[in-house]
TrEMBL record:
InterPro entries on file: TniQ
Pfam families: TniQ
Domain TniQ: 8-146
Protein's name in the database: TniQ domain-containing protein
Amino acid sequence: MIPARWAFRLRPRPEELLSSYLCRVAFAHGSQPYRFHRLYWPRMELWTRDIDRGVPLAVLAAACKTSGLSLPEVTDLTLAPEQAALVKNASIPGVTPFVLSLGIYHRARQHHGQQFCPDCLAEGSGFIKRWRLAFVFGCERHRRVLLDACPHCGAPPAPHRNLIPRLEACERCHGLLSAPAETAAQPSASAWALQRLLLSAAGVRASEARQDVDAYPQGSAATYRSLFSAVGDPRIHARLRASLGLPGLPEGSLERRRLEHRRVEQRALLIETVAAWLSNWPEAFRVGAQESRMTQRVFARLHLDGVVAAEIARLPSGQQRTRVTRSARPAAAWQRRKREKLEAYRERRARALLKSLT
Ligand SMILES: [Zn+2]
Ligand SMILES: [Zn+2]
């Protein structure tokens, strides 16, 4: 008989994700996550969905029962509080704003939406919540750019599939994700500051971000996301970086994708560009918008508020595409001639066509 509670009721690590916690619990019992949790919760599909992003109440209730944690404690392992703080009433088809996509297919992960800091993992942090947020590109504590793939084989981390009972192991090659790895080129100080600002908007580490709040124009997180979307156009991005004196974009970064679907190197560049564009407000913003030839049309259908919305309203409106449609069907007069006398119709029509070509 299966006991009502787990034998080893672990405490979550600070800021740990639900998926990471459930994996650690299974490993502590010497089992594989999907086998272990199927034993306790046979009717619940845990690993074919993104349980950190959105989890049914039944899973939360079951987790409370077996772990001994309270409902607020379990809810706090998910990204629900951050989502609520960042974007209110947003409906963007196919994405959860600011939450990186895992691209779950059966139990596999096809997107690189689970970032990690190898140094934090080596210290036993588990996978933490901020690593799933799309504006987070680096670990402030270890001053390094995060990884979003195994440094040995390039697979996205999926610890729930690990045959080795270790959270830091790669499911595909069994190498350690926590192995020392070179850090990518450091984004600018203003990019780090923008990351701190948005983390504070998400309700994470608010006290440390206070110093950065005044450095950027007031606006909601949704407005900042709109700026990332607009700059995500490869031509605008390249022109804007040139106008701001930033290094050019490397090969392969000229892709048009949603923020939540981009890999970490691309997002780091995007955040660096937006951070530079917003510093020295509003002068750099005006020059950047003008030199990258932005118009209001770039922001059509994007949410804007505060002083950013007022600045965008000053941009040229942009050309409206006007389409003149000519009927492809012959006019009614032609149809009448066709009915009356087919031979004459063909001849006259051919002549009319030839005339229109010359
Ligand atoms: Zn770290
Ligand atoms: Zn690997």
